[in-house]
Specification:
The chain is α/β, with parallel strands linked by helices and 237 residues long. It has 8 helices and 8 strands.
Length: 237
């Protein structure tokens, strides 16, 4: 294969993936334009981790906010366990403001990408609400958790005892996607649940799984979880 054929092959692959393939180099160094793009993408990833979800995004869906025990962003990154437990005042507010024992509990969290919430929530949440209605599922009081980890759904389950819970949370950003969201789902979440007890749809963003499509699919999965009274590796899809 000559150089021109190889270049055309890489260009064809590049049209179907954001991965860095066939970017070229000069000696042992990447091309200047590629190095600058790499640094820009890295900056976007850092901004996603350290950023804050816009208040307007939460206000649009009437989501009140509570905190975990993470303290600050540096502590959040170093102590994942703090993000799995609600702050004492958060537990009180959730208990007072939320419907108890709902069929479906929706929780939103910034996780490791605030940008994922800002970019995807306006599409995924309305689609999810419509999907719940289509599947004849009732939803409780939705809210936002700042500094959350996936395990916080168990602490929330302890307080509200939902039949199923779905957590829409920002994923760890990469150099190809800084605004990717995951949807974790669990049947009767409680402290002591294992990762194998949870379901997940990941890579939710405009260049991955479309948020509207993900929202619609989540509703059908939650219905099957309720019908089979289980989630995780033993659920029959």
């Amino acid at each position: 294969m000559d150089r021109e054929q190889q270049s055309n092959r890489f260009e064809g692959l590049a049209r179907h993936t954001p991965a860095r393939i066939g970017v070229g180099r000069t000696g042992t160094r990447p091309l200047t334009k590629e190095l600058l793009k790499l640094r820009l993408d890295h900056a976007h990833a850092v901004d996603s981790v350290y950023g804050e979800v816009h208040a307007a995004t939460l206000d649009e869906f009437n989501l009140f906010s509570v905190n975990t025990r993470f303290g600050d962003k540096e502590n959040y990154l170093k102590r994942p366990d703090r993000g799995r437990l609600l702050a004492d005042e958060a537990a009180i507010e959730i208990t007072e403001r939320c419907v108890h024992k709902p069929q479906v509990q929706i929780v939103v969290s910034d996780g490791l990408s605030a940008k994922a919430v800002d970019e995807n929530l306006p599409d995924i949440l309305p689609a999810l609400i419509d999907s719940l209605a289509f599947n004849k599922l009732a939803c409780g009081t939705s809210f936002f958790v700042r500094g959350g980890r996936v395990g916080c759904m168990d602490d929330i389950g302890r307080l509200l005892a939902p039949e199923v819970l779905v957590l829409l949370i920002g994923e760890r950003p990469g150099l190809a996607a800084a605004a990717s969201m995951s949807a974790y789902m669990c049947y009767q979440p409680r402290p002591g649940k294992k990762d194998s007890d949870r379901m997940v749809i990941s890579n939710i963003h405009q260049r991955g799984t479309p948020p509207v499509e993900a929202g619609a699919h989540i509703g059908s999965i939650l219905r099957k979880m309720i019908e089979q009274r289980i989630s995780g590796v033993n659920l029959i899809i």
